[in-house]
């Protein structure tokens, strides 16, 4: 897949900024003290839906409306939450019906947020991958346009956050970005290439949902039997082949983090910045912490706080370990 260039990402930003502002990139003294270095946090948790994916939804729907006009019967998608909120938000802005499929037992807060944004919610399957299968059938039966979790237009949309960050931080040496289905990481790679920036892009996956780590090692898609992790934004059993090809070329490395490491990073965010981070949102900090323990060195690194939509049940466990 040819990645979006600077002109396309800039055009996507102009569409996105009709509905939201650029997010901040901040460095926090207490967090720097904990890691003994300078780190910059990209605060995608401050976006209208509390996550980075809203950018992709806004741009995807804009392009879809350009292509199909007003003939769209409705859109549907499978999600663990943030992709669904993105599409519900964007569809609502355009008066388009949205139907979102989530697995049973999904994050209640994310479910409530999607409904509040106007989406019709359907619960089906034991995990994200089973929800995807159901959603495809729903699209065929009802004539909805199914929006996948990985698509070039989604990449162009979410690449806008990386463009914001890398244009401001020209000497950033490394950036850690979580990988669910891959749009965020591919967006960072696209922005890096668009700006000819020298930053190293490090992908982060859950060790309990490591299809992308296994697939990168094997050079082909390797599905896993389960994706049972508190970082629900990373809970994917099967990598996307197109995303995988981009990551193979553009990543400087990949880090697998445990749920325990993610919980520690969530606590660090709360204690040092007073920000809530969901599991996937804290994964980048967890990976940076792991690399530091393993002797990695750098002068300036970036981490993507990709979302803050954490459930009370999960965050109560995080609070228990705060000191």
Counting structural domains, the number is 2
Estimate the strand proportion: 5-15%
What Rg do the Cα atoms give?
18 Å
Strand order of the largest sheet: 1-2-10-7-8-9
Query: Class of the largest domain, according to the CATH hierarchy?
Result: Alpha Beta
Number of strands: 10
Average predicted confidence as pLDDT: 95
Briefly note the structural class of the backbone. Answer: alpha/beta
Q: Please give the count of helices.
A: 13
In angstroms, what separates the terminal alpha carbons?
Answer: 46 Å
Q: What string, H for helix and E for strand, traces the elements in order?
A: HEHEHEHEHEHEHEHEHHEHHEH
Unreliable segments of 5+ consecutive residues: none
Major β-sheet profile: 6 strands, mixed
User: At the third CATH level, what is the topology name of the largest domain?
Assistant: Rossmann fold
Shape assignment: globular
Q: Based on the structure given, which CATH architecture of the largest domain is correct?
A: 3-Layer(aba) Sandwich
